[in-house]
Amino acid sequence: MSKVYTPGYINLYKTGELNNRIERLYEILKECKLCPRKCSVDRTKKNSGYCKSGLDILVSSSGPHFGEEPELVGDHGSGTIFLTNCNLGCVYCQNYDISHLGIGKIMSVEELADTMIGLQSLGCHNINFVTPTHFVPQLVMSIKKAYEKGLRIPIVYNCGGYENVEIIKLLNGIIDIYMPDIKYGINEYAKKYSNAENYFDICKDCVKEMYSQVGDLKSVYGIAQKGLIIRHLVLPNNIAGSEKVIKFIAEEISKDTYINIMDQYRPCFNADKYPEINRRINLTEYNKVLELAKSYGLYRGF
Q1: What 3-state class would DSSP assign to 228?
Q2: What is the DSSP letter of 255?
Q3: Is 10:175 a contact under the CB 8 Å cutoff?
Q4: pLDDT in tens, 218-240
Q5: What global pTM score does this model have?
Q6: Cα-atom radius of gyration of the chain, to the nearest Å?
Q7: How many CB atoms lie within 10 A of CB 214?
Q8: In the chain, what are the domains?
Q9: 266 to each of 152, 187, 263, 272, 301, how far by Cα in Å?
Q10: Angle formed at CA 290 by CA 289 and CA 292, multiple of 5 degrees
């Protein structure tokens, strides 16, 4: 990769394709199918589906974030924008006040564009949209507005992995770094703990599409520019089905995949109603997943 990376949205803007994508995405909002739930509500009329969101963008917070992967953080932080609400229903959600209770403020696309420019001016290495799935059309419009104001840094799509693959295809060339969770390798647990039907099957298709667009993670001077980062949170009692997740990544994506195997699970929100997840993981559980990753030939991230 060139030492001077040009984010993909710049070329799409110059060719006019970015406008075409925005039109198509806003049309989908009229009968919303942004995520696999396909609620089909008209969100342009402020109706809300499962995600409890209408046309307005809701943002809980924004700023340089230094707790992300080192390749995103660099010296000046990842420019994170935390979106309010979510298309998942995780009973153990650590950000439940944002994702379930809807804490946040309304932002126009112009205001969000100004926020991105502000993060860039602080030296942030990227714009990191956290939980973006249900606001994709508005975010892409904001990227266009931000480019017109001088945005020139990569875009990170930081999601829960429960995506509509057709929407991911519409993001081709707009997103530089995809960072999905693969939360579960077992569909029945995804349904029970995140109210996500067929999660693993849907997530696999989406991650394959993401990888086809951006490939393995590529960095310049240690700073991520383009590619795929996968996150996997280890859950108690192998609720996450970690081996199936690891096997899929190694055999169907790439052994060069950057995977962050996370150990920070703690029981939050409604986890106390489920004894099997109402505790932190132990070191043995975590190390077992690390060893699994190594045994399948994975080596980046962890």
Answers
A1: strand
A2: T
A3: no
A4: 999 999 999 999 999 999 999 99
A5: 0.97
A6: 18
A7: 21
A8: 8-48+55-301 (3.20.20.70)
A9: 37, 21, 9, 11, 21
A10: 60
